[in-house]
Amino acid sequence: MLIHFKSDCPELCWQQICFNQRIKRYRTADKDTGVIAYETAKDSISIKFRDGSVYVYTDKSAGPAAIAEMKILAEKGVRLTTYINQHVRDSYQYKL
To answer: At a CB cut-off of 8 Å and minimum separation 6, what does 66 contact?
Structure first.
């Protein structure tokens, strides 16, 4: 799993470096969201939060159904922070 988040990456840096990898910016209309980026793998999703923390949720730690739902919400750019807080908050495999 590749995790190369840049904490203070300006817009140009983000586009040139981060988008060349599997990391995706979380696109949402909600400016108060805690999630700013994510990365998916076959059986996991890594979430970067506004405070710079990165949590890795896996099929093993949160369950396949939760990982599938998180991937859908991340791609849609809706309610991912809410879902994490309500359903899988402490079910991460590890924190980076």
So the answer is: 57, 87, 88, 91
List strand residue ranges (DSSP E) for 52-93, in order.
54-58
pTM for this model (two decimals): 0.75
pLDDT in tens, 43-96: 999 999 989 899 999 999 999 999 999 999 999 999 999 999 999 999 999 998
Residue 51, classified by CB atoms within 10 Å of its CB into exposed (0-12), middle (13-18) or buried (19+), is exposed
Rounded CA separation 43/12 (Å): 30
* Neighbouring C-beta atoms of residue 60, cutoff 10 Å: 12
Dihedral over Cα of 41, 46, 48, 53: its sign = negative
- 18: which DSSP letter? G
Question: Is there a contact between 6 and 52 (Cβ–Cβ < 8 Å)?
Answer: no
